Amino acid sequence: MLRKIAWVFAALILFVGTYVAYIMLTTKNHSPSVVEKFVVNGFEMEVTYCQPSKRDRLIFGEESDGALVPYGKKWRTGANEATEISISEDVRIGDAVLKAGRYSVYTIPGPDAWTVAFNSKLGYWGASMSGDPFEEELDALRATATVTPIDSSLEQFTISITPADSVINLNFSWDKTRATLPLQRIK
């Protein structure tokens, strides 16, 4: 009898492991991985993320309306693994300084502004069994990004890095929304 239980348990572990591996491997087909790089005068910034698609869904809005990314809720800022950013030099974001290094990025979208969190823990995947994988006590910095509407709808979520005057803008764009966070090099 004990042998049968062990076989059933082993088969269950094999099934669950195969299913998890299948999900992790095939989700990249629907939300491809992208690396956005920015290099200027020795300064390097790189963002690695996965691009989910709109597919006729309500993207940003109220949870009660069925929004994929509800206002006021943490979002991994992409699909699959958490978005990660690496910065080669310290940067100023608002009144705070983000030290050079590599961080997970999550956001808390709102209709007029987003909170952008740079978290020191790497390797987050989607949502944990408890629902929230991001450990706020590991946030290295939180900043506010301004939101502007986009005229035409973007099918895929996109992160771009663009220079503007004395800052470097980190842009999060999807559907008809763009959130922009200005970073300034510290020399």
Query: What number of structural domains do the residues give?
Result: 2
| Percent of residues in helices | 10-25%
Strand content of the residues, in percent?
Answer: over 45%
How far do the termini sit from each other? Answer: 70 Å
Question: How many beta-strand elements?
Answer: 11
Question: Which residues form runs of ≥5 with pLDDT under 50?
Answer: none
Helix and strand sequence: HEEEEEEEEEEE
- Rg on CA atoms, Å: 19 Å
Q: What does the overall shape look like?
A: globular
Report the biggest beta sheet as strand number plus sense, adding barrel if it closes.
9 strands, antiparallel
Adjacency order of strands in the biggest sheet: 1-2-5-8-9-10-11-6-7
Q: SS-based structural class?
A: alpha+beta
Tally of alpha and pi helices: 1
Description:
The chain contains 1 helix and 11 strands, in the order H-E-E-E-E-E-E-E-E-E-E-E. The strands form 2 sheets. A 9-stranded antiparallel beta sheet has the order 1-2-5-8-9-10-11-6-7, with no helix packed on it. A two-stranded parallel sheet has the order 3-4. The chain is α+β, with helices and mostly antiparallel strands and about 190 residues long. The mean pLDDT is about 90. The chain folds into 2 domains: about 1-30; about 30-185, no CATH class. The chain has one helix at about 1-30, and strands at about 35-40, 45-50, 60, 70, 85, 90-95, 95-100, 100-110, 115-120, 140-165, 165-185. A hairpin with a 4-residue loop joins strand 8 (about 100-110) and strand 9.
